[in-house]
Amino acid sequence: MIKLALAFFLLVSLFSSSFSATEAQCTEWGFGSDLSCENCKKLGEVVSDTELVSECNKCCREEENSKEEVYSKAQLVVCRWQLKEFPHIYEFVNKKLHQYKKLELQFQQGRRPTLLMFDQKGQIAKTLSLSSWKTEEVEEYLKAKLK
Fold first, then answer.
1. Gap between the Cα atoms of 16 and 36, Å rounded
2. In the prediction, which pLDDT does 63 show?
3. Quick check: 114 and 142 in contact, CB under 8 A?
4. In terms of Cα–Cα distance, which of 104, 100, 105 is closest to 147?
């Protein structure tokens, strides 16, 4: 009986891990829409949390060899009163934000740190949750994507 239950659990786990999660669910889990499956692979090498790695794999996409996306401007949206709850974003806002001329800071009550990337037409092209990002990751991303 135990072997049957274990086999059923493993089958359900394997079956469910093959499905992709919705963008909203991925954002809730803290994964951005540009998550590379290569990053999930690296995550699996350094953490033992198999559920986290599985969620990562459900939200990632394979790297495309096409031209890299770049954006004309960006907007960092965050709640002024919750900013200190995200120390890396707090540090970025206070020490690094001024270095990015095409990045605008907007305070919105109750908003978790979110980065909006705009295309050449001024339309939102990508939305990223920055809740779990480190200062260096924000900088690297903006240097690579904001032209």
1. 20
2. 61
3. no
4. 100
- Other C-beta atoms lying within 10 Å of the C-beta of residue 60: 21
Q: How far apart are CA 45 and CA 87, in angstroms?
A: 25
Distance CA 44, CA 19 (A): 18
For 22-36, the pLDDT digits (tens) are 888 888 888 887 788
- The answer to whether residues 134 and 87 touch, using CB atoms and an 8 Å cutoff, is no
User: What three-state secondary structure class fits 88?
Assistant: helix
Residue 116 per-residue DSSP state:
E
Q: Which of 68, 93, 71 has the alpha carbon at shortest distance from 146?
A: 71
Cβ 37 vs Cβ 16: under 8 Å: no
Strands 103-107 and 73-78: parallel
Residue 84 CB partners (closer than 8 Å, separation 6+): 90
CA nearest neighbour of 32 among 69, 1, 85, 3: 69
**Under 8 Å between Cβ of 73 and 115:** no
